[in-house]
Amino acid sequence: MAEVAENIQNIIKPENLVYQKSPVLTDKVMHYCPGCSHGVVHKIIAEVIDEMGIQEDTIGVSPVGCSVFAYNYIDIDWHEAAHGRAPAVATGVKRVFPNKFVFSYQGDGDLAAIGTAETMHAVNRGENIVMVFINNAIYGMTGGQMAPTTMVGQVTATTPHGRNVDLNGYPLKITELIAQLPGAAYVTRQSVQTPAAVRKTKKAIRKAFEVQANKKGTAFVEVVATCNSGWKISPVESNEWMEEHMFPFYPLGDLKDGEKEDPEALKMNV
Amino acid sequence: MAKVKGAVVVDVDTCKGCNLCVVACPTQTLALHRNVNGKGYHYSYMENPEACTGCSNCAMVCPDSCITVYRAKIA
Amino acid sequence: MGELRLMKGNEVIAEAAIRCGCDGYFGYPITPQSEVMETLMNRRPWDETGMVVLQAESEVASINMVYGAAGSGKKVMTSSSSPGISLMAEGISYLAGAELPCLIVNVQRGGPGLGTIQPSQADYFQATKGGGHGDYRLIVLAPASVQEMNDFVDLSFELAFKYRNPVMILSDGAIGQMMEKVELADYKPRWTDEEVKEISDSWAAIGKSPDREQNIITSLELESDRMERNNIRFQAKYQKIQENEVRFEAIDCDDADYVIVAFGSAARVCQKTIQLARAKGHKVGLLRPITLFPFPTEEIKKMAGHVKGFLSVEMNAGQMVEDVRLAVNGKVPVEYYGRMGGIIPSPDEVEKALEQKLIGG
Q1: B23 part of contact set with chain A, CB < 8 Å
Q2: In this protein, which residues make up the domain named Thiamine pyrophosphate enzyme TPP-binding (chain A) (predicted)?
Q3: What percent of chain C has pLDDT over 70?
C-alpha cells in the first residue's frame, strides 16, 4: 500500500499535469444538481474562451431557468436577461460592441417557448453571436414541468400522464427551424454524456466562436442534455434515457455549416 | 519498457458524487467512496489507482470540474 | 444660436439623439411615434456618428436590446406609444432593477387596449408609479413643445447616467406630430470605447480586464436580506432624485387665487385658459410639472398655503390629480377636469370647468 501511495505522489507533480479546471471558471461551487449537464457545458465554454485568449473580450448573456446563475461560474462580464430575451439582449450588446465575442446561453423553455420570437429573429438577422441551447426536455428550475421539447409520452409535473399531442402539441425541433434561416451560419446538435461527445461539443463551440470572429452569421449550438432531478432518475440512467429516447428524435450532427446567405442573391430586381 | 501511469486528484469538497466519472473511466480506477463529504455526497476516489492511465475521461465528463489529472511515464 | 428648423416632435427626438451622441436606438413601429425610427433610418447616423439603429421584431425585443446595450455602458434609447410601452413593462422593470441608464420615449395615445391613435395622457400612472412589477421609479420628463422634445433627449441621458436609472420622456401624439420651430443642439461626439471604460468600468459589462472583478448586469438576488438592501439603495436614490431633480414651470402663479396644474399638451391648452380667466377678472395661474417623477410636491404644498384651490387638467380620467391632492393634503379643494379617448380639451371648456368647480358662479 505504501508503495502505491508513493507511486501516486510521484505522478502528482506540476510537470505531469494533463487536465485541470479551466482558469476561466470561478471558484464558486455550482448550484446545479449532481450530474447536471450544465456544468459540463459551462466548463467547455470556459475552456474555449481560455484557449482562444478572449476572456477580456467575451460577454455572456444568461437566461431565466437553472442556468440563470451561469454568470457566477464563467469568469467574464455578463448580462442576466429576462425570460426568453437573451437573443435580444445579446443583439443589443453585439450591435454596440461589434468586436466583442457575445454569446447567449439558454435552456429549452427560455429559447424555444417564451423566447421563440427573439430566437428566430436574432438568427434571421444573422446576428454575429453564438447561441448555446441546452435541451433537456423539461423545465428544471421551476420543478420539472413540460418544456416545448418534452418527448411525446414523457411524464413531467404538468404532463403527469405523459405528453399528449392532442393536449400539448408536438415536441419542437427548433434547431431544425433555425437551420432553415438564411442568417444562420453554423447550426449543430451535440451532447456531453461521454468523453468523446464532450470533445465534439467543445470543437463545435470553438467553431461557433470562430464563426463569430469571422462575422459569418449566427452560430447555434444545441446540446441535448439531461435533467436527472426533473426526470427523477440517476445521472447515469439519465444519459441512457437520453440516448434511447431523445437521440432518435433529436439526432446529433451538423444541420448547417457555412455562412449566412449572400444578400445580393436575394435582392429583388427594381 | 516505459509505461504511462496516471493519477487523479478529486476535490472532495466540491464533488457531488454523481458517478459520471466512475462510469466514464475505461480502467475502473474510480469508485464512489463509502464515506461522504461535508455535503453528504459519496465522493469519487481512486479505488484502484494502479489502473489509472491519466486519460482524463473522468475529468472531461465531470460537471463540477473537481478532477485534476496527472500523467507520467514510469520507467 | 443653434440651427433653427421647422420639425415634428417625433423627428426632433431622432435628430436630438444623433446630435447628443446617442450610441443606439432599438424600436418597433407604432402610431403616433413611428417618425422617430423613420427619421433615424433616413438620416443613416451609422455613417455619420456610428450610432446604431435597429428595427426589432417587437417592443419586447426592443427594450431587451436596450437592456443589453445599456448594460454595455452605452447611451441607448427606444421609443414607442402606449400599447408598446405596456409590452416593454417587464423590460423596464429589469432595467430599473439592474440600474441601467437609458431613455424610453412614450408618445402616448388613448387607451385602454388598442384604444385610439389620438393623443392622450392616460399613461401617467404607468410612467410615474411603475407600470412594471416591483418598487421602482423612472425619472419622467413631460415635454410641452417640440423644443422640449429636443432639449429633453440630452437631459435624459445626463440624468440617466447621473443616477444609473432609466428615464422616460412622456410625450403624446399631439406633441409628437405637431410641427414647431426648434433650435437644435450642437453635435456632441459619441463616447469612444475608451471613454465608456473610463465612465462605466465600475459596473458595465464591457469585458472583464484581469485587474477587476466581474461586472454582472442583473436584477436577481435570491437572498432576501440582500434584495431588501438593494431596494433600500433604490429608494435612497429615488429620494435623492426627489430632492434634486424637480423641474416645473410656474406661470402667473405669484398673485393667483386658483392654480391649474397640467403637463404636456394639456398645459399648452391651459396657458390659453389662464388668459381667458384673467380677462374675466379671475386670478388664475398655471403650474406645469416638467418632471412628473419627481413630482413638484413641495411647490404645490407651498402654494396650498395661499391659494383657494387647484384644478388638475389632464387628458385622462384623473391620474395626476391624486398627486396634487397628496401634496395639498386637504388644505384647499383640488378638482379635476379632463377629456379621454384621444380628445384634447379646449381652453374654453377648461375655463368653464374652472368657474363651475372652483370659482363658483
Answers
A1: yes
A2: 71-223
A3: 100
